[in-house]
């Protein structure tokens, strides 16, 4: 681990999003001053409203595909801005490509200018519909560049490429985390992802919309585990990509049954067509994170899901959904 300034300043792009807001909380708790940038197209100020009045926290509404001007010293830049759920990037294909390409370029430019360390939030989607299972960082992926998910997958692949280019050509200290399915409070109830979709459906007694036959698999990591791993990666000396996720893998069908059980719901399961290019399997190999970062997830799925279910119950009680 390298030395940390006593009162570091961290910039988080996408700071009002699900992950960005949890990362803000984590860094503030460790004495960082945090500047959160977000254009709020998928982020939500409700995720950071508890930080209003905290003089270590600044929120700036800004589209990071435009030039980023910030005065003063910056130690760390966490580049998290992007639509991140399949229906978001289907609805926002150009914005998704722009933030992955132009936004990453601007954020790297800021890092170079400030001599800051830069961490890119990449994704398991760089592996596409993987032909290697579980996925190791050395796997190059199986991505359809022109399919509906291509806008996200290729934007993140470009983002990784330009991040490595800034590292090699300009000597910027860069880190790349490949984030696998992550869940927890502050996910958007209507972002279409399986955790909020099934949880809200189960809590409302509606049928759970399982796509395909539900045989496709995912592996779910609780947000606090993810953020802890990302922080370790930022402080490490590792400029190669690192998977962060929870290797506990299950089918979507099994996941639906788990949610129904944990919500004590009477909901049934309804089968819908499988979206195009939906990866059939996904499970991180986290050997590298274990070895290089001494990191592994600690939150049990049921415990994390119960905390997440409480969050969505709260939204329903408030009449927010
Ligand atoms: N899924 C589902 N029903 C839903 C939403 C998602 O069966 O209402 C499936 C989806 O087809 C995928 C998995 O759940 O196989 C995870 O989907 P999600 O949108 O959460 O993210 P992905 O892992 O595909 O990026």
Short structural summary:
With 321 residues, the protein is an alpha/beta fold.
The description of the largest β-sheet is: 7 strands, parallel
Attached small molecules: uridine-5'-diphosphate
Structural class: alpha/beta
End-to-end gap: 43 Å
Tell me the strand percentage band: 15-25%
Task: Describe the protein.
By secondary structure, this protein is of the alpha/beta class. It has a domain at 9-182 and 223-246 and 283-297: Rossmann fold, CATH 3.40.50.720. It has nine helices and 13 strands. The strands form four sheets. The chain has a seven-stranded parallel β-sheet, with helices on both faces. It has a two-stranded parallel sheet with strand order 7-10. A two-stranded parallel ribbon has the order 8-13. Helix 1 packs across helix 6 (223-235), helix 5 (194-203) packs parallel to helix 7 (252-262) and helix 5 (194-203) packs across helix 9. The radius of gyration is 19 Å and the shape is globular. The mean pLDDT is 97. Uridine-5'-diphosphate binds next to helix 5 and strand 8.
Blueprint (SSEs and pairs):
Elements: E1 9-13, H1 18-29, E2 33-38, E3 57-61, E4 76-79, H2 86-91, H3 93-114, E5 117-123, H4 150-170, E6 174-179, E7 182-183, H5 194-203, E8 208-211, E9 217-219, E10 221-222, H6 223-235, E11 241-244, E12 249-251, H7 252-262, E13 269-272, H8 287-293, H9 301-317
Parallel strand pairs: 1-2, 1-4, 2-3, 4-5, 5-6, 6-11, 7-10, 8-13
Antiparallel strand pairs: 9-12
Helix pairs in contact: 1-6, 3-4, 5-7, 5-9
Bound molecules: uridine-5'-diphosphate.
């Amino acid at each position: 681990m390298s030395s940390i300034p006593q009162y570091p300043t961290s910039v988080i792009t996408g700071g009002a999003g699900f992950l960005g807001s949890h990362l803000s909380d984590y860094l503030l708790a460790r004495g960082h001053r945090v500047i959160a940038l977000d254009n709020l197209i998928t982020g939500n100020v409700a995720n950071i409203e508890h930080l209003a009045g905290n003089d270590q926290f600044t929120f700036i509404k800004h589209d990071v595909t435009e030039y980023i001007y910030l005065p003063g010293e910056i130690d760390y830049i966490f580049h998290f801005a992007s639509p991140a759920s399949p229906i978001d990037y289907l609805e926002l294909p150009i914005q998704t490509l722009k933030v992955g390409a132009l936004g990453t370029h601007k954020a790297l430019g800021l890092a170079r200018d400030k001599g800051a360390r830069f961490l890119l939030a990449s994704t398991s989607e760089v592996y596409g519909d993987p032909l290697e299972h579980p996925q190791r960082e050395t796997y190059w992926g199986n991505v359809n560049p022109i399919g509906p998910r291509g806008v996200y997958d290729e934007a993140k692949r470009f983002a990784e490429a330009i991040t490595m280019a800034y590292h090699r050509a300009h000597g910027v200290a860069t880190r790349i985390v490949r984030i696998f399915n992550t869940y927890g409070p502050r996910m958007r109830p209507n972002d279409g992802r399986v955790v909020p979709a099934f949880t809200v459906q189960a809590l409302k007694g509606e049928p759970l919309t399982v796509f395909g036959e539900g045989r496709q698999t995912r592996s779910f990591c609780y947000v606090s585990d993810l953020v802890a791993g990302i922080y370790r990666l930022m402080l490490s000396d590792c400029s190669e990509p690192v998977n962060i996720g929870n290797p506990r893998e299950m089918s979507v069908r099994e996941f639906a049954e788990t949610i129904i059980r944990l919500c004590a719901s009477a909901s049934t399961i309804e089968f819908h067509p499988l979206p195009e290019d939906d990866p059939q399997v996904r499970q991180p190999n986290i050997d590298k994170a274990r070895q290089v970062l001494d990191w592994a997830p600690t939150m049990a799925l049921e415990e994390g899901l119960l905390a997440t279910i409480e969050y969505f119950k709260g939204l329903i009680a408030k009449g927010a959904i």
